[in-house]
């Protein structure tokens, strides 16, 4: 049985832990903004180009770097601190760098709407049919991207930053489709997207760009791939997209399985018979739909 003193110590520790949690919740954004600054200063690239380890002075002298403001208090016996890449920061360098997509997530355009989250949550459902982004910016994300050249470049670069598979519908500049077309020349690869996206896409051998709207129709294909698409739309719009996918894919006879989770409702309503969700990395999953 605990003594009164032990209970008192336990209660004190619980209170300290609770305060710590509140502090973390309140100022966690500082870590995100520090990370954003590190991306903008190309710190990981600088360390990588210097051989994997570097001092602050060496990092600041890399071509294209802005000399950072820093002050380190140290004794005369201390040498310069040496910094190296961690497993996480290694993902920010090289040809498979995640820097573009992470920079997109941390861009002011996408961060600022969260200051209005409390206001948005006070609306009666379905929040006047406006997303948080639309309520904050008075326009949809696609309108912002489509009318801002720098934002369009950041968005398209971010969407293909970690691409290793075919993006067919709303595939942007089609980096994934290019890779598949090169690896499997017997497969005809096409990218469907809006006119302004296709107009700025580079000419590629073995890849077809098709101007179209996924809400109207999708060209026939043996397989339709979507990446970073479905999560941007509400349920009725998702159903429309997936119904058009269903029309584009040749039918096959497969017994229907029991509906599961929220995605199941959308997928089955679109006319698909079965689906499989496979977690691949962090919060992302690969969804296979079977007609």
UniProtKB/TrEMBL annotation:
Pfam family, one: Methyltransf_2
Positions of the O-methyltransferase C-terminal domain: 160-251
InterPro entries linked: COMT-like (IPR016461), COMT_C (IPR001077), SAM-dependent_MTases_sf (IPR029063), WH-like_DNA-bd_sf (IPR036388), WH_DNA-bd_sf (IPR036390)
Gene3D superfamilies: Vaccinia Virus protein VP39, Winged helix-like DNA-binding domain superfamily/Winged helix DNA-binding domain
SUPFAM superfamilies tied to this protein: S-adenosyl-L-methionine-dependent methyltransferases, Winged helix' DNA-binding domain
Molecular function, one GO term: protein dimerization activity
Stored PROSITE patterns: SAM_OMT_II (PS51683)
Key words of the record: Methyltransferase, S-adenosyl-L-methionine, Transferase
GO biological process, one term: methylation
Protein origin, superkingdom: Eukaryota
Protein known as: O-methyltransferase C-terminal domain-containing protein
């Amino acid at each position: 049985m605990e003594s009164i003193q032990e209970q008192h110590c336990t209660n004190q520790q619980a209170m300290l832990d609770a305060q710590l949690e509140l502090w973390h919740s309140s100022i966690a954004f500082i870590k995100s903004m520090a990370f954003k600054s590190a991306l903008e200063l190309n710190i990981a690239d600088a360390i990588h180009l210097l051989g994997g380890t570097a001092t602050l002075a060496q990092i600041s002298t890399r071509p294209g770097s802005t000399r950072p403001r820093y002050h380190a208090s140290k004794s005369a016996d201390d040498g310069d601190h040496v910094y190296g890449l961690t497993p996480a920061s290694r993902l920010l360098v090289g040809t498979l760098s995640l820097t573009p997509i992470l920079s997109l997530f941390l861009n002011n355009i996408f961060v600022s709407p969260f200051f209005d989250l409390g206001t948005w949550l006070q609306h009666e459902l379905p929040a006047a049919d406006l997303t948080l982004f639309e309520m904050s910016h008075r326009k949809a994300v696609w309108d912002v991207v489509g009318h801002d050249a720098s934002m369009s470049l950041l968005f398209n670069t971010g969407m293909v930053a970690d691409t290793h598979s075919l993006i067919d519908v709303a595939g942007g500049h089609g980096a994934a489709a290019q890779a598949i077309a090169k690896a499997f020349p017997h497969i005809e690869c096409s990218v469907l997207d809006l006119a302004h996206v296709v107009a700025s896409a580079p000419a590629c051998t073995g890849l077809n760009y098709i101007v179209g709207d996924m809400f109207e129709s999708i060209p026939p294909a043996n397989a339709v791939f979507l990446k970073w698409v479905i999560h941007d739309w509400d349920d009725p719009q998702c159903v429309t997209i997936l119904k058009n996918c269903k029309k584009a894919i040749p039918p096959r006879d497969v017994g229907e399985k029991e509906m599961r989770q929220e995605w199941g409702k959308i997928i089955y309503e679109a006319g698909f018979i079965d689906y499989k969700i496979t977690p691949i990395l962090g919060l992302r999953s690969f969804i296979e739909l079977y007609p």
